């Protein structure tokens, strides 16, 4: 049995005004492959305008319970401040996504970025944080978005809404065509 | 009830941690990767989620056989999309199991060697095109009832996978129902095909929701920890309550002479043949062997693709270095 490929965290943006959200992981050989797999796994319906991927082992994820329990890690700090994208889980409600993009901070290590994030973003109940180094992220390109995401729009037969209410009651107008 | 597992009782804080964990679940909080959890909770979830993932993946096979024989282009497109969805659902679930420490490699190997269990309903053959519709209506219908319950699971990654799956599964259910109703209202031959498919799929669909509560000793613990939020029999009741009247309205006869609604609204059904259920679980179903062979063949025949992808990315890294 061959060794499994690395895991990549996947972040999906559903619409232009919505934040990117952490939705899960895929296995892939490289960033470009990871984006393709993420598209096939998570975007079979018209529900994305952009995808980001980052190697799972470069993402710092910490839950509120771990923070309260005193989880801290010594991280070797870079000489200069780096950019980090910050995601936060803010609710226990049933959801499709784990954490929402809050914005960006500059720091010399992921743990320092986490501290910055806690100061910077006014989240009422931060249940878990994800800190992603900017240089670990690979994104779909805007110019590729139509070819990547638009074909799903015309495939209305994949939408449950296209079927309306299905019942055995007599139909006003049968759909033309065979079975 | 306290669970004792080797190693756990050596943690002096175990009882306090367990109490805090159970209080979180009682308060409706979700447990996330990294949070403390009892080892039994972790193990139970890995078992359930990986089985569930395998079921999605094996579930592609009975329907996939019909893609090339779909009666129209529209039905072919629908079936391709549905089978693709099952592949995706397997991926969501493998991810959820990985957050608990299971590896993709271990899970794949367990499936390919036949050690892993998956839903027995997929070890029955699809004999006619009407079976494809009936699977959508009944098998996916039973799955939705179960998955809607699991969407409330206390473990975050599993809950999220279920929410995502349910939204897509509704399309599977509706297209199947549409197809069966059309047959049930079609030519005598089509009606016969629909009835025949119902005769064969009704009982496996009921079995699919698992043994009776009286034979599910783990259920109280699973419910207490919010892994399940309803018992097998409760979910089976929900399934019958929705599907029995609709099948009857379509003019089909459910192959259970004892089936009737009780005065209190619940449904009484005849005895389920659990001997058959366990026989299929143990590996003696009609298609167990064929399913395992198909998965192994796909794995072996896909090897060159995996190797090519690996080589391509290694070359890219070498060129970049």
Would you kindly provide a written description of the structure presented here, covering whatever features stand out?
The complex is a heterodimer of chains A (179) and B (321). Chain A is α+β, with helices and mostly antiparallel strands. Chain A has five helices and eight strands, in the order ββαββαββαββαα. In chain A, strands 4-7-5-6-2-1-3-8 form an eight-stranded antiparallel β-sheet. In chain A, a hairpin with a 7-residue loop joins strand 1 and strand 2 (21-27). Chain A is globular and about 70 Å long. Chain B has a two-stranded antiparallel sheet. The interface between A and B is large, with 48 and 66 residues. Chain A: Residues 160-179 are annotated as: Disordered. Chain A: InterPro entries: PaaB, PaaB_sf. Chain A: This is Phenylacetic acid degradation B.
Architecture blueprint of SSEs:
The complex is a heterodimer of chains A (179) and B (321).
Chain A: E1 7-13, E2 21-27, H1 31-42, E3 50-55, E4 60-63, H2 64-68, E5 82-89, E6 99-107, H3 110-120, E7 128-133, E8 138-139, H4 145-149, H5 151-154
Chain B: H1 14-26, H2 39-58, H3 60-64, H4 73-98, H5 104-112, H6 129-150, H7 156-184, H8 188-207, H9 219-224, H10 232-249, E1 260-261, E2 267-268, H11 274-284, H12 288-301, H13 303-320
Antiparallel strand pairs in B: 1-2
Helix pairs in contact in B: 2-4, 4-7, 6-7, 6-8, 6-10, 7-8
InterPro entries (chain A): PaaB, PaaB_sf
Organism (chain A): Truepera radiovictrix (strain DSM 17093 / CIP 108686 / LMG 22925 / RQ-24)
Region (Disordered) (chain A): 160-179
């Amino acid at each position: 049995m061959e060794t499994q490929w690395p895991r990549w965290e996947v972040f999906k943006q559903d619409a232009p005004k919505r934040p990117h959200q952490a939705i899960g992981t895929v296995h892939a050989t490289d960033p470009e492959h990871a984006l393709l797999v993420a598209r096939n796994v998570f975007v079979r319906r018209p529900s994305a305008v952009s995808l980001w991927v980052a190697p799972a082992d470069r993402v710092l994820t910490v839950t509120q319970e771990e923070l309260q329990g005193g989880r801290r890690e010594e991280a070797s700090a870079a000489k200069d401040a780096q950019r980090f994208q910050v995601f936060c889980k803010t609710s226990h409600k049933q959801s499709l996504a784990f954490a929402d993009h809050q914005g960006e901070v500059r720091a010399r290590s992921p743990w320092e970025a986490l501290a910055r994030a806690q100061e910077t973003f006014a989240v009422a109940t931060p249940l878990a944080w994800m800190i992603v180094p900017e240089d670990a992220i690979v994104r779909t390109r805007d110019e590729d978005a139509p070819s990547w995401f638009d074909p799903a729009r015309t495939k209305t037969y994949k939408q449950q809404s296209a079927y309306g209410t299905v019942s055995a009651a007599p139909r006003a107008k049968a759909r033309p065509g065979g079975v | 009830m306290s669970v004792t597992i080797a190693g756990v009782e050596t943690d002096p804080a175990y009882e306090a941690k367990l109490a805090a964990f159970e209080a979180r679940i009682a308060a409706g909080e979700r447990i996330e990767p990294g949070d403390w959890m009892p080892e039994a909770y972790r193990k139970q979830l890995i078992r359930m989620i990986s089985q569930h993932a395998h079921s999605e993946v094996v579930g592609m096979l009975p329907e996939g056989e019909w893609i090339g024989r779909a009666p129209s282009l529209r039905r072919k497109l629908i079936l391709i999309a549905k089978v693709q969805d099952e592949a995706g659902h397997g991926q969501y679930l493998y991810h959820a199991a990985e957050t608990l420490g299971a590896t993709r490699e271990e899970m794949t190997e367990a499936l390919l060697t036949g050690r892993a269990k998956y839903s027995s309903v997929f070890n029955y053959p699809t004999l006619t095109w009407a079976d494809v519709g009936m699977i959508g209506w009944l098998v996916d219908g039973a799955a939705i009832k179960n998955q809607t319950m699991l969407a409330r699971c206390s473990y975050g990654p599993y809950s999220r996978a279920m929410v995502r799956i349910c939204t897509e599964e509704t399309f599977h259910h509706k297209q199947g129902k549409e197809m069966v109703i059309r047959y049930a209202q079609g030519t005598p031959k089509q009606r016969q095909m629909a009835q025949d498919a119902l005769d064969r799929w009704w009982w496996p669909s009921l079995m699919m929701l698992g043994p009776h509560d009286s034979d599910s000793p783990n259920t109280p613990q699973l419910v207490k920890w919010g892994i399940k939020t309803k018992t097998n029999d409760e979910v089976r009741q929900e399934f019958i309550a929705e599907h029995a009247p609709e099948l009857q309205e379509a003019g089909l006869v459910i192959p259970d002479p004892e089936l009737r609604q009780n005065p209190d609204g619940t449904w009484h059904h005849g005895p389920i043949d659990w001997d058959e259920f366990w026989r299929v679980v143990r590996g003696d179903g009609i298609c167990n062997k064929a399913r395992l062979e198909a998965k192994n063949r796909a794995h072996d025949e896909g090897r060159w693709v995996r190797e090519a992808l690996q080589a391509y990315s290694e070359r890219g890294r070498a060129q970049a270095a």
